[in-house]
Amino acid sequence: MNEVKNSDNYSEIISPDSLKTDYVTAENCRFFETPSGFLGAEINGNTYRRVILSRALPLTMPDKYICITDVEKNELGIIEDISYFTEEQQKLINGELSQRYFCPVITEILSIKEKFGNFYFDVKIGNYKKNFTVKNLNKNIRYHGEGFDLIDVDGSRYRILDFDKFPSKSRRKLEPYIY
Amino acid sequence: MNISVKFDLSPDGEYCDGILSLIGEEITAKFDEKIIFCVSIKGVREIVLRTYVGCGMIELVPEDSSDNMDNSIEVCRFSLSCVDEVGEFCKVINHYLKYNEETDINTSGFRVCPKCGRHYAKGVNTCLFCVEKSYLIKKLATISKPYISWLLFCGLFVLLSSACSALIPVLNKNLIDNYLINPELSSNNTVVQIIKYVGIIALFQIMAKLFGAISNRRANKIGGSISNDLRIMVYDKTQRLSVSSVAGKTSGDLMKRISRDTEIVKNFITEQGIYALEKVIMFIVILVVLLKISPLLTAIILVPVPAVMFAISKYWSKIRVRYEKQWRSDSRANSILHDIIKGIRVVKTFGSEKREIEKFAYASKKLADISVSNEHVWAVVFPFLTLFMGIGEFLVIYFGGRMVISGTISIGELLAFNLYLAYIYQPLRWMTTLPRRLGEVTTSLIKIFEIIDEKHEIADAENPVPADLNGDIVFKNVQFGYKPYEPVLRDINLNVKQGEMIGLVGHSGAGKSTLINLVLRLYDPDSGEILINNTNIKQISQTEYREKVGVVFQETFLFSGSIYDNIAYAKPSAKPSEIIAAAKAANAHDFIMNLSDGYNTIIGEDGHTLSGGERQRVSIARAVLRNPELLILDEATSALDPNTEEAIQDALSRLVKGRTTFAIAHRLSTLRNATRLIVIEKGKIAETGTHDELLKQNGIYASLVSAQRETSKLEN
């Protein structure tokens, strides 16, 4: 209810202080693994037996601005930068993030066929051969830094880390299709 | 029970070929012959599927689990390639846990081609990877079927025109051999004969052109009609597509398909289609004549043809990809333009014109670069192809000259042969330009048929029954999610009596608007059923049903046109007196009469010339005019100031009287007249009752009311 009061006060909404965010830090936040294998956290003295981590900027800053929520998606805090935490804590954070974000890195493109507006990829992810279908390349490509993610018709993602460093044979196959 | 599906991620997040099964009452997950999970479902409350970014997991929730589910047990992980299958697996188990009934996995929603194993997009019926290359030609042929007689007519005139043209070199040959080279062979009146030949040649020329003009004229008509049919089909389909399907496409993209792609198809039919017919006929006719004059010379001119055809076929796939890329750039530039023009007020108020100009300039330059690059490739390849193709011409001069000297053929025959060469090379050269033109039209056809062939997600029943809303609306065990594996509404059981006003209350994202979407049948429930007067909503004709439903949204959309036209949109046959009565009922009449053009006032696109309250009142008048049996008010007054809201509330209370009404409002005072309030929380009905009953319960509704009281204290 207090939140309602505050949000109706325009002078507070537009004051420069209102743009500041209080981040959780290594001092007031500690993560731990629960017996069920989930990530728990102690934040400002409160214990949460299951928390979920989400990246605010997954493409551009995957290690910064990580939101901590409970299963009901109520926000418990935001981590400004993972590197501010100890190595052991970082391992727990990254472990949870890797469970929530799956974007395998394409190591080789075997073939790309375009048929009737759909793009059929045959790729290698390490030693695993995978095929996937992308519809409407314009909408299903997310650029980040030197590379990009391709999103297939199921919503699965596949990453090209650095297009310029991609094997030249694979690059030649992909080049005509990217904007 | 014995069911199994695939999953594809190991606990370490590596790809694997896993099998998830339920045998008897035991869930097992295994890969590489290794069992990673094996637990009985006894004592399990439910199995929950969670989707994340690119992946998901399922977990068993024990009966004694808290809301936070911190003692759940992870079963397995999977990439979204398996989500449909795993989702169905969970559905079957949850159904069993809840109703103790065994069901089978429903594979109808799986989008995997049984032939090639590739996944295809939502809304597509067939695996486009496996369809034959002639797929598009067959599609186009189906659409062209009504014009078959006119196409035959065109073909006949093209044949006549080609025959006339083909005869001209023969006449030339006879003129040269009989009257110009060997005048002594002719009779005394050589000049008369020459004039006669010139006349005949001129007549054949005129006839060839005349027949050509007739066929071209008809071809233009056919092209225009086919393109018109396509345009209407695409537009018609976009109107019928489900809301989720249309939401997945940008308006710029849809507009490009409806207007420009159909135009490209028309141009191809009128310019290339008839030309192709002419050239093919000409090629066959001339080839026969050439073989008759000299089989050796004919063989010489055809030497480079196979090589050129091979080059074209190799080049074809590359040029197609280039034109696809050009189409994407074009569509992107169009979408940006459409966005900027639609959001021009936001652009201007934020002073971001420069940024937007740069954004569009970048997209436009990309498009220009790709177009120029495509044209460059063409400009380089085309001359070489035609030069190579024309090699035969040089050979004919050499070998033909020698044959004339040796007396094998006459000068007239060589001259006729040379004239025919031009005719035969024309279709061959045209074929070298074909990849470019085909590349363009194939891309457009694909985009058009993508829409036309899209599966109706919310289809009418085979024999729909008329809509009869004179009865209760009943929700029976309704479950629904925009993605079938992520339920937004669960276990909805509700009986709405005819004439009741139901107020839907709850936090944002609780599922109120989703419930309304189901009542409107914009989506179908994943399980359970909605009955309208004892008839399943799926059996009712959608058009007829929606004709009896009136909706007022928070965001009103008014078409560009007059206020009169906008109100009459609900009932085009309405008399002016009805329009005025509807406006009066909606408390809109007074402000309309204050406008100098009254009901004829033209409102700008999206009603920008009217205030928010005025637009809302026009849209209520539209709903009043329809005289709906079922009324839906989705945040109809939440964007308005209290005074305007009062005027609109007054109008709405008149509208609601005696009709079954579903109303959503964040401002709870708006629902004071509701017969019953339904509180929705996390997709379930949490509380039901009147305002007083719910206050007494001191639950979610009571806390919402008290939060709003605090706010209104601040406002006062």
* CATH homologous superfamily identity of one domain in chain B: ABC transporter type 1, transmembrane domain
Biggest beta sheet attributes of chain A = 3 strands, antiparallel
Radius of gyration of chain A: 21 Å
First and last CA, distance of chain A: 49 Å
Work out the helix count of chain A: 4
The CATH class label of one domain in chain B is Mainly Alpha
Biggest contact: A-B, 49 and 58 residues
The SSE string of chain A, one letter per element, is: HHEEEEEEHEEEEEEH
Low-confidence stretches of chain A: 1-8
What is the overall silhouette of chain B? elongated
Name the helicity range of chain B. Answer: 55-70%
What spatial order of strands do you see in the largest sheet of chain A?
Answer: 1-2-3
Rounded mean pLDDT of chain A is: 86
Q: What is the count of β-strands of chain B?
A: 19
How much beta of chain A, percentage-wise?
A: 35-45%
Please describe the biggest sheet of chain B, giving its number of strands, its sense, and whether it closes into a barrel.
Answer: 6 strands, mixed
Which descriptor suits the 3D outline of chain A? elongated
Explain what the structure shows.
The complex is a heterodimer of chains A (179) and B (716). Helices cover 17% and strands 37% of the residues of chain A. Chain A has 179 residues and is an alpha+beta fold. Chain A folds into two domains: 2-100, no CATH class; 108-177, no CATH class. In chain A, strand 7 (108-115) and strand 8 form a beta hairpin. In chain B, helix 8 (304-342) runs antiparallel to helix 10 (353-389). Chain B is 55% helix and 16% strand. In chain B, the strands form five sheets. A six-stranded mixed beta sheet of chain B has the order 13-16-17-10-18-19, sandwiched between helices. Chain B has a four-stranded antiparallel beta sheet with strand order 1-2-3-4, with helices on one face. Among the domains of chain B are: 2-109, PH-domain like (Roll), CATH 2.30.29; 135-452, ABC transporter type 1, transmembrane domain (ABC transporter transmembrane region fold). At the A-B interface, helix 3, strand 7, strand 8 and strand 9 of A face strand 7, helix 8, helix 12 and helix 21 of B.
